[in-house]
Design brief:
The complex is a heterodimer. Chain A is an all-alpha fold. Chain A has 2 domains: 267 residues, no CATH class; 212 residues, no CATH class. Chain A contains 21 helices and 2 strands. Chain A has a two-stranded antiparallel sheet. In chain A, helix 8 crosses helix 11 and helix 17 packs parallel to helix 20. The longest helix of chain A is centred in the middle third of the chain and has 32 residues. Chain A is globular and about 70 Å long. The two termini of chain A are 38 Å apart. Chain B has 22 helices and 2 strands. Chain B is mainly alpha-helical. Chain B has one domain. Chain B has a two-stranded antiparallel ribbon with strand order 1-2. Classes of the chains: A mainly alpha, B mainly alpha.
Chain lengths: 481, 512
């Protein structure tokens, strides 16, 4: 190989740009090493946390300063991708800490679990930075393949295996559609790199490329769980081990959105109406289906569908208005940040309760929770209000920003229908609060009243972040973009 | 000490203090809450007394940058008092300790949580009235829903869960639509400062104003509630604990009428002129319909709840009469309704604590065993039906006067509400207090104690004071209401000009 090319690829700039990914990948390798050497497995949490910390630190180095394009414009590092990386690290940390002592029979495989989780996280980082369809695909698979295994991690339980199988079948299908779409786009535009496609904008008007773009969107919509590609979500979320569900709910969604944003810039502006319609249907379907759920994981799964629809509204608004302003990017980043801590906290508390009782968490089983676990109940109530978009929480400001993108693009009827559909959501969020605070405990089989230190601390951090994002968002609004 | 930040956030600090106490220390929790609300009331009243009503200027203003929205729109923490808010702030501040004292009788479980929510509620309500930044206003507006949701849902009656969810979803649907209006307005105007928004919004094309007005007015109309959005109110009131009802009737509903005044009339005068006939019609329908509903009730608490629909109908009619008399009357009537209906709910709560029923046919002849209770009830009823010399009369008279100036016909229909009101309230009073003592359970009833009398006395004093010397109160609102009227007149002139093809800009210049 030509020395010049090698030098260009292995420059300090490349190291800087891919820092977060490298930290996680190195962490994965070290974990494998630690796992194989008998005495070293105590170091596993240290290595895991160090990898996450390293990735977060590496991300902060590219937060300010110029945009770095590396690997022939196929990978980018700028403040947006850095913030996405920080969110991925936070998602992984939340899922991991709430998952402490979750596994019983599988506890001795915790090492595998952590390796897979960290690999998936590195895939997320790659997805956010990718500006090339193939690089993105590599990231997507690095995320998905470990997740298939993780979903089926409780191998003795049928619902877990079923979830893994379902996710694998549909995920493989989505991956195939992505590849097909990428191939069509290549046929239509002659490139796989987003920046080149954008430069040759008119080529995207070709039917071939448009079909390809539609297939790409379908596959991304599968990952962020948008109607009509959301049907796997409740089953998989319910069946998968709860720490994995937590990670999927916040991490996967964030990763797919991180790529959907630059990808959506390529779409013709007349697709705004279609995207808005899909977004509204998604909000409606998600919220209406969540209304009738009794299992908390299922309910939160459908609520996640509705939230994905809400964020999609910002993309529709962006397409309808002026896509170059970056308003949608900032709105979705903020929304997602709030969502990571809110839904992460909610799923996390469900994980913790499930670990303590050994049973699925339902509306019935958390009745009267405030008597035994006032702190958990209060945090859960806060998360529910934030998911519902009540002020003083991050969820409200996220909603404000997303809807303001739609309003600015003069999609006011769409925005009004959107908010009215989100009123439905309060119906089920409030049911959780009602059960915890306003109904008596169910006789027998109560939730143990002793608390667990690490998950409780994490819940406190999540709650604090939700409040900070809601009450003192100034710093985030100025720096996170 | 005497500033608006302390006024608004002292209750929140109190809530944190109460939350830090051990849950068994009920006495301590009650003590802290009472003390905090008393200090809040003192600050509130002192500020209201200091307030100069001759000008429309914002007083005791506080301003600090809060955060920046995309598009470089600075959101400020901006509080200030003007003639539109001064009376309502006073009302909220005064009712605080009264509500706390009333809970001695009926809140025995989970006292700590109740006190925390009560104090948070106080912060939310005061903040709503005092915010002069649209985003801050929206914050307080929605945040104040949450405490009442818990108060209703935990300490309410049998069908509390139904009532609380209905209340929350209903009001939230309105608020969410308003959110789109808020976003739109802020984006169009490029500022969140309410005072500057008033100038900008008033100059928007009338079509745009109508859309924005509708988004805001829907939310306020649900909160008031204006017929046909009233169905949540009787349920919420009936199921709420006494203290919840007092807050709901006394202050929370006023957030709706206050919103109509500040963010409906003052902000979109052009749209308000177009909407006035409709809003007045809805108000009048509400007056008559609410009165008819009340007549049909057998539960005395529900009866009073329905009468609120009727009484607040007056306020809406008075506001949208768009005359000085109507505006003054409405603003005063907001306070009057808070006092009289609050007093009625307190009394019903006291009898319920003794008798555990509110069905009208379970009473009769109570006056013989509870003379003091009877005295207070008759006073509250007379104040509510508008007996001259008491507060209700002044408000209703001004409203009817203002309405008559705008539309004699509507005033004629509205006045029937006064008669109906006298009919159902006096009939209910007769059924409860007079006649023979049919039910033996009622013989053993004990009359009101010192605490109960003491907590009602401030309300009684205020009722008489407003009735005898209304100008002490009305004069504080004059400056701001004149300013509102000027905005309306200007919009009216623009409207006639555009209808009569006179160049608009000239009239606009003359109007200023």
């Amino acid at each position: 190989m030509n020395q010049a090319i090698v030098d260009r690829i292995l420059s300090a700039q490349t190291l800087l740009a891919t820092g977060p990914f490298l930290a996680l990948a190195l962490g994965v390798l070290l974990l494998v090493l630690v796992e194989t050497i008998p005495f070293l497995d105590r170091l596993r949490p240290v290595v895991f946390l160090a990898a996450l910390a390293g990735a977060a630190w590496a991300a902060t180095r590219t937060m300010t300063g110029p945009t770095l394009w590396v690997f022939e414009d196929t990978y980018v590092a700028n403040s947006t991708t850095s913030w996405w990386s920080v969110l991925f690290v936070a998602s992984t940390l939340i899922a991991w800490i709430f998952g402490k002592r979750y596994y019983r029979e599988e506890a001795r495989f915790q090492g595998e679990h952590d390796i897979l989780l960290l690999t998936a996280a590195s895939g997320l980082v790659l997805m956010a930075g990718a500006r090339d369809l193939l690089v993105f695909f590599v990231g997507l698979e690095m995320l998905s393949v470990p997740l298939y295994a993780l979903c089926a991690f409780r191998r003795a339980r049928r619902d877990s295996v079923e979830a893994g199988m379902k996710y694998f079948m549909l995920g493989a299908f989505a991956a195939a559609i992505f590849l097909m779409g990428a191939a069509l786009m290549y046929a239509g535009t002659g490139t796989l790199t987003l920046s080149t496609m954008q430069a040759r904008g008119e080529l995207l008007e070709s039917p071939l490329a448009l079909t390809g773009a539609a297939m790409l969107l379908a596959s991304l919509f599968f990952k962020i769980s948008v109607f009509p590609f959301h049907l796997w979500v409740p089953d998989v979320y319910q069946g998968a081990p709860s720490p994995v569900t937590t990670f999927m709910a916040i991490g996967t969604k964030a990763g797919a959105f991180a790529f959907l944003l630059p990808m959506a810039l390529l779409l013709p502006s007349r697709s705004a109406g279609l995207i808005a319609a899909i977004a509204l249907i998604t909000i409606g379907v998600g919220n209406l289906a969540a209304l009738v759920q009794t299992d908390l994981k299922r309910m939160l799964a459908y609520s996640g569908v509705a939230h994905a629809g809400t964020m999609l509204l910002a993309i529709a608004g962006d397409l309808h208005g002026d896509p170059q302003t970056g308003a949608a990017s900032q709105a979705i980043l903020f929304y997602m940040a709030a969502y990571v801590f809110t839904a992460g906290g909610a799923f996390g508390l469900v994980t913790m309760l499930e670990a303590q009782t050994g049973r699925p968490v339902t509306i019935e089983s958390i009745r009267g929770l405030q008597w035994r676990r006032p702190g958990v109940a209060a945090a859960m109530a806060l998360f529910m209000l934030s998911l519902g978009g009540i002020p003083a929480t991050g969820g409200f400001l996220g909603k404000y920003l997303v809807f303001s993108v739609a309003v600015r693009a003069e999609m006011i009827p769409v925005a009004v229908i959107g908010v009215l559909l989100s009123v439905v959501a309060l119906g089920y969020y409030l049911r959780v609060v009602v059960a915890m605070f306003m109904q008596p405990e169910v006789e027998g089989r109560p939730v143990p009243s002793e608390s667990r230190v690490l998950p409780s601390a994490m819940a406190l951090v999540c709650a604090a972040m939700v409040l900070v994002l809601g009450v003192l968002p100034g710093w985030f609004l100025e720096n996170v973009r | 000490m005497l500033n608006l930040t302390n006024l608004v956030f002292l209750p929140l600090v109190g809530a944190l203090l109460v939350a830090a106490t051990p849950s068994k220390a009920v006495g301590l929790q009650r003590g802290i809450t009472l003390l905090v609300t008393l200090v809040t009331a003192w600050i509130g009243l002192a500020l209201c007394l200091d307030f100069d009503g001759s000008t429309a200027a914002i007083q005791f203003a506080e301003d600090a940058r809060w955060f920046t929205l995309p598009g470089r729109i600075d959101v400020h923490y901006r509080l200030g008092m003007d003639g539109l808010s001064v009376l309502l702030v006073g009302l909220t501040a005064v009712l605080g300790p009264i509500v706390v004292l009333s809970t001695w009788g009926h809140i025995h479980q989970r006292v700590k949580e109740f006190m925390v929510w009560l104090l948070v509620m106080q912060t939310g309500m005061l903040g709503t009235f005092l915010s002069l930044d649209l985003v801050l206003f929206y914050f307080f507006w929605e945040v104040s829903l949450v405490p009442l949701y818990f108060i209703l849902g935990i300490w309410g009656g049998e069908r509390r869960l139904y009532a609380t969810i209905k209340f929350f979803l209903y009001t939230l649907a309105g608020s969410f639509v308003m959110l789109i209006g808020v976003i739109w307005l802020i984006w169009t105007a490029g500022t969140t400062d309410v005072m500057r928004l008033m100038d900008v919004a008033g100059r928007l094309p009338v079509d745009t104003q109508i859309w924005l007005f509708s988004a805001f007015a829907l939310s306020f109309a649900i909160k008031v509630p204006v017929m046909p959005f009233h169905t949540w109110l009787p349920d919420a009131h009936t199921e709420a604990p006494t203290s919840g009802s007092v807050i709901l009737a006394g202050v929370l509903l006023k957030m709706g009428t206050y919103g109509l005044l500040r963010f409906g009339l003052s902000m979109f005068p052009g749209a308000a002129i177009e909407a006035a006939p409709w809003m007045m019609a809805l108000g009048v329908i509400g007056i008559v319909y609410g009165a008819l509903l009340s007549m049909a009730q057998t539960d005395v608490k529900r009866l009073i709840a329905c009468s609120s629909v009727s009484h607040l109908g007056y306020v809406v009619v008075g506001l949208f009469a768009l005359t000085q008399a109507g505006l003054r009357g409405s603003l005063l009537q907001m306070v009057n309704h808070g006092l009289s209906t609050g007093l009625l709910f307190l009394l019903i709560g006291m009898i319920y604590e003794r008798r555990h029923t509110r069905a009208l046919d379970q009473f009769g002849g109570i006056a013989a065993v509870m003379p003091i209770f009877a005295l207070f009830l008759v006073f509250a009823v007379l104040s509510s039906v508008g007996l001259p010399g008491l507060n209700g009369f002044v408000g209703e008279y001004l409203i009817l006067l203002g309405t008559f100036q705008a539309s004699p016909w509507l005033a004629a229909i509205a006045v029937t509400g006064v008669i109906f009101g006298a009919v159902y309230l006096l009939m209910a009073t007769r059924k409860m207090l007079f006649g023979p003592l049919v039910h033996s359970e009622n013989r053993a009833l004990t009359d009101l104690g010192a605490r109960e009398i003491g907590l009602m006395l401030p309300i009684v004093v205020l009722c008489v004071w407003i009735g005898v010397q209304p100008n002490a109160f009305l004069s504080r609102t004059d400056g701001s209401l004149r300013d509102v009227q000027a905005r309306i007149d200007r919009a009216r002139a623009v409207r006639t000009a555009s209808l009569g093809e006179i160049p608009v800009h000239r009239l606009e210049l003359e109007g200023r």
